[in-house]
Amino acid sequence: MKRLIAVVASAGILLSGCGANEEAKHDEHAHMNHNSEATPANMKVAENPKYKKGDKVTLTEGHMPGMKDAEGVVKEVYTTHVYEVSYQPKNGDKKVSHHKWVVNEELKDAPKSGLKKGDKAEMTANHMDGMKGAEATIDDVHKTDVYVVDYKDTKTGKTVKDHKWMTEDELK
Question: InterPro entries from the xrefs (predicted)?
Answer without folding.
Answer: DUF1541
